[in-house]
Amino acid sequence: MKVIIKLIIASLMFVSLQTQAVLDIKISQGVEQALPIAIVPFSWSQAGNVAPIDLTSIISADLKRSGRFDVMDEKDLPQRPADFDAINFGDWRKLGMENLLIGNLSLTNSGDYEISFRLIDIYRGKQIAGFRIPAKPDLLRRVAHQISDIIFEKLTGIPGAFDTRVAYITVKKTKNNRIHTLQIADADGYNAQILLESPEPLLSPAWSPDGKKIAYVSFEAKNSAIYVQDILTGKRERVSAFEGINSAPAWSPEGSRLAMTLSKDGNTEIYVMSLFSKTLHRMTNHGGIDTEPAWSPDGKKIAFTSDRSGGPQIYEMDIRGGQPKRVSFEGKYNTRPNYSPDGKSITLVHAVNGAYRIGLLDLSSGYITTLTDAKLDESPSFAPNGGMIIYATTGVRGAQLAAVSIDGRIHQRLGLQEGDVREPVWGPFLK
Amino acid sequence: MFMRFLLVMSLTGLLFGCSSDKVKEDQPVAVEDLSSQRTDGSDDSNAQAYGADDSSTSGFSQLDDPQSPLSVRVIYFEYDSSEIKAEYRAAVEAHAAYLTQNSGTTVTLEGHADERGSREYNLALGERRAQSVKQQMMLLGVSSSQIRLVSYGEERPAVDGHDESSWEQNRRVEILY
Q1: What is the DSSP letter of B62?
Q2: Whole-angstrom Cα distance, residue A229 to residue B84?
Q3: If you average pLDDT over every residue of chain A, what do you get?
Q4: Do A290 and A301 touch, CB atoms closer than 8 A?
Q5: Residues of B in contact with A244 (CB under 8 A)
Q6: How many CA atoms lie less than 13 Å away from A7 in the CB half-sphere?
């Protein structure tokens, strides 16, 4: 038996493979009054050679995808100023343009790059932001997303989350098998990398707060077990493989503990494991189902799903213990809680007349707003800026990723080329 | 051998009746009830269709007999429920009887759920379904050491569709020898 397990593990791949599978993100509904912005194509110091990256397209795609910006078509630009003094404000004002981005990419003597840009308020005729950023060649794409983050924050007041990553599970059916992969990709779907591939189910990926590790559940040993894997090195550790269920890992905000669901003591209960000592602290004690723990951002509370009152509902309990308090009351089915970064609301799976949708529970009023309108939506996860919720939606073409803004006005579809994509989790801000 | 099997069957039938029917606790349970349930069970097209595809024992065994209630290897459940429906009692009794008779044999009860709702909740639900079959078997005298439980939640559907007819085939416990 042991030999068989070893063989299976040997056949798993933990190397970071670059994949062709790129998430194709389409905005299906944006806000009515999107902010107009024009982006002048970045100038490039080595005019004779092809620029190493198309910063303009990446930034433009980020802003469009957010649903909050109306980016002017390049062909409609009235002029292409290279610096502030060359801007003819009258030309832009006539077209009703409010914001303008100009910038330059240059090669330095050391072989690295330098990117400079200015964000300009056309009406006031003033610079809103100006930055000069050095970048190694392999970080150019990240710099483009960081520029998008700056523009987004300056113009909407909300920190941007373009320079972040998402993790998700893919499942591809073969003739007599299913291939499961755990992948991560940039928030715009590029740079998809496989962290693990297995013929057995993989589920519940969870980012460590520093964005360097992912915890997940794998059935590779013919039962659920929780693993923690280092993203960069691919090195991993099996942290929980008790008899019964080992699932639903959730990192504490400071990163030293994992909340999880174990059924080793008879039925599913919530436990907290210290990752250093591997000691377990049992949180719940009830004959019903208790699962899907989520930490409040301040680390003081744990929300979880329990069917102790009959159907599944969301409960909150103090991390120091005590009686769990039910917090969801609308509808007969509420599961999979995930706190907003400000801790004031919880996104969840909320069933309405047999349709499973993404809901937003306001913790002060107890009111649940339904954000989506499909039938099989699941796995909601907040973006680190709290503006969007990424989730999985199943339709005739299988499972795909989608995202919705917390006000329900912006809807995005993230399509992968083939197979099912599910259980998206938005990673933390990168440092 | 076959006679002894029948005898065990009727004895476990009595046990089952006592444990599951609290109102009539003191009344002996009629053997006819059991046989009629058994007929119902074998008439269930779902249970037959997804039955005996696995037999690891060599030579002839009751497990291989398509007429035996032991050929029922999948128990189906209602939505969000882990209660064993009456139509599967005969099958559970037969498996319990077989396991008590063959104390060296082990069985894996694999719990599953349909795809609706969240995956982790469904993982717990699949385990609760498997546990409910395990408990029933243990009431009928099977040793817990003979039973292994595993839940796959919604991760291993028997049928891939996204409609009620698929879902009802996915809410199940598979009895694997």
Answers
A1: G
A2: 39
A3: 91
A4: no
A5: 127, 149
A6: 4
Q: Residue B108 phi/psi, 5° resolution?
A: -105, 125
Is the pLDDT reported for residue A21 higher than 70? Answer: no
Q: How far is CA B165 from CA A321, B114, B158, in A?
A: 43, 11, 11
Alpha-carbon gap, residue A56 to A40, rounded angstroms: 8
Give Cα A275 to chain centroid, integer Å: 24
All structural domains of chain A with their residue ranges: 2-23+164-426, 31-156
Q: Tokens 């798993």, residue?
A: A12
The tokens of B58 are what? Answer: 């060599």
Q: Please, which residues have CB within 8 angstroms of residue A341's CB and are 6 or more apart in sequence?
A: A297, A382, A384, A385, A386
What would the mean pLDDT of A108-128 be, rounded to a whole number?
94
Block residue for tokens 């606790």: B25
CB proximity list for A385: less than 8 A, separation 6 or greater: A158, A159, A160, A161, A341, A429
Task: Give A201's contacts in chain B (Cβ within 8 Å).
Answer: 152, 155-156
| Number of domains within chain B | 1
> What are the φ and ψ backbone dihedral angles of A292, each rounded to 5 degrees?
60, 55
- Predicted complex ipTM: 0.88
What φ, ψ does residue A112 adopt, rounded to 5°? -90, -170
Q: Does domain A2-23+164-426 have CATH number 2.120.10.30?
A: yes
The Cα–Cα gap between A262 and A292 comes to 11
Average the pLDDT over A400-414 and give the result.
89
Whole-angstrom distance, CA of residue B125 vs CA of residue B154: 9
A379/B119 touch (CB, cutoff 8 Å), yes or no: yes
What is the C-alpha separation between B16 and B160, in angstroms, rounded?
35
Query: How does pLDDT run across A254-290, given as a tens digit for each residue?
Result: 999 999 999 999 899 999 999 999 999 999 999 999 9
Q: Provide the CATH topology of domain A31-156.
A: Rossmann fold (3.40.50)
Q: When comparing pLDDT for B43 and A25, which is higher?
A: A25
Q: Which of B53, B78, B115, B121 to mutate to probe the A interface, most A CBs <10 Å?
A: B121
Cβ of residue A406 closer than 8 Å to a chain B Cβ: no
- A266, closest residue in chain B (CA to CA): B131
Give the residue numbers spanning the domain of B11.
2-176
Between A221 and B45, residue with greater pLDDT: A221
Considering only residues A7 and B74, tell me which one the structure prediction assigns the higher pLDDT: B74
Least confident of A82-86, A170-174, A392-396: A392-396
Best residue in A204, A242, A291 for a mutation probing chain B (most B CBs within 10 Å) = A291
Q: Tell me, what CATH number does B17's domain have?
A: 3.30.1330.60
Cβ contacts of B115 on chain A, cutoff 8 Å: 376, 394
Question: DSSP characters for A251-299?
Answer: E-TTSSEEEEEE-TTSS-EEEEEETTT--EEE----SS-EEEEEE-TTS
